[in-house]
Amino acid sequence: AVLDGFAAPVVGEGEAHENDSYVEQLVLNAQAAVAELRRRGVSDDRLAVGGHSYGAFMTANLLARTELFRCGIARNGAYNRTLTPFGFQAEERSFWEAAQTYAAMSPFFHADKIKAPLLLIHALDDPNPGTFPMQSERMFQAIKGLGGTARLCLLPAEGHFYRARESIMHMLAEQDAWLDAHMRRKG
């Protein structure tokens, strides 16, 4: 089963900034989605999570904060928000105005909690200032250095979105092999 187009709203009430409770809201959204999948008969051993760009950021956060998924796939993500110090997505505060929020939201700072295998795919020519390839390279090094399971796949001559047939086929082959290796039914 594939849950595609999963919407995980993160909101702020009153004077509160939505990102100040981002992690808590993200986890609650994922728990609700997984509960619905279970209700529909999807087995826990068949749950993986993945995303591109902000979805990759969410994927890494979910692996660092929950044990809901067997593995993850994150493409062209940002994992250390202190490297985007003047805001990102809906975050308009600078790092110096909201340092605790930036650190709390950054899965890089919680890489020691990532126990599920994570495939990181990143385009080498990503022009997005928040998702330079260094983000995936450092996340990979953190997970591996901490004894976790990760793979880093770098796609040459690609931007934030992959266009070349060879790159798309490479990405799909990497994802297929990753899911086969980490989602295969035992016995």
UniProtKB/TrEMBL annotation:
Keyword Transport attached: no
Listed InterPro entries: AB_hydrolase_fold, Peptidase_S9_cat
GO molecular function, one term: serine-type endopeptidase activity
Annotated ranges, domain Peptidase S9 prolyl oligopeptidase catalytic: 31-184
GO annotation (BP), single: proteolysis
Keywords, sorted A to Z: Hydrolase
Listed name of the protein: Peptidase S9 prolyl oligopeptidase catalytic domain-containing protein
